[in-house]
Amino acid sequence: MQADDPSLQVAQWFREAESVVILTGAGMSAESGIPTFRDAQNGLWSQFDPLRLASAAAYRDDKALVWGWYVWRMAMVRQAQPHAGHRALAQLAALKPGMTVVTQNVDDLHERAGSADAIHLHGNLFASRCFACARPAGDVGIPTCAVSEPTLRLPPPRCTHCDGHIRPGVVWFGEPLPETSWQQAVERAHGCDLLLAVGTSGVVYPAASLPGIARARGARVVEINPVATDLSCKADAVWRTTAGEGLSKLFAALTTE
Ligand code: APR
């Protein structure tokens, strides 16, 4: 393996670790075809800033526009497949009981690849609920044409209980993270010996504080990302590769004698 390839070092740290946390961001889903938040949005949505659409204020301003964007994203995730990196994470967990995946992503690609207990800090795209009474909305029905023929505005469905408007089950900017998920993530970060930050720009808090929390308690932090981020200078090793390649190589290094 190339001299600049830290896979052997990371594999050694993985072997030595008693407790491992994997923090993933939008870059983990990129190789499944899901654009990251700070990538230019493609097509119909290129005219909109995702960071503006992902807010309660935007939903109040234009429910149909925000709901149309989320339906497009739900349909895109439904069509996407987990990649080798998602599958490698499930295999790594089999090598390291107790390994925890903490994700900022709202898709279900980790679960579909076998990481059934991933902790979702920013909610779940498919857990829609009523904006008024917060009751779960169940299956909201995603038009199969939503990706090929995205519709800019789709009026959200109404709550069967109070007739309120249905919203996506994600954490919008300015909203608190799910308390239980956040507490679990902090607890795992406190107790781990190794934290891999995979595919995150490390700019959105409090999720971005997890590597620092782990490191402050003596854990090693490794960044897996093709480009430098705000986390790079706080990592013990930076691995300039993609999630798919890096996690697959890590599993191979651990299982190839
Ligand atoms: N493999 C690994 N990393 C990748 C890949 C890849 N194939 N492709 C892109 N990346 C990296 C980018 O270099 C970038 O650093 O993934 C990172 C994605 O950063 P963001 O788009 O900022 O996503 P994220 O860090 O998850 O954002 C955190 O902010 O927008 C909100 O709620 C949203 O959960 C999101 C949060």
Helix content: 25-40%
Structural class: alpha/beta
Large-scale geometry: elongated
Give the CATH class of the largest domain: Alpha Beta
The number of domains:
2
CATH superfamily of the largest domain: TPP-binding domain
Secondary structure: number of strands: 8
CATH architecture of the largest domain: 3-Layer(aba) Sandwich
Number of helices: 10
From the alpha carbons, calculate the radius of gyration and give it in angstroms.
Answer: 19 Å
Order of strands across the main sheet: 3-2-1-6-7-8
State the oligomer. Answer: single chain
Low-confidence stretches: none
CATH topology of the largest domain: Rossmann fold
**Average pLDDT number:** 93
Please sum up the structure shown:
This protein is of the alpha/beta class and 257 residues long. 35% of the residues lie in helices and 11% in strands.
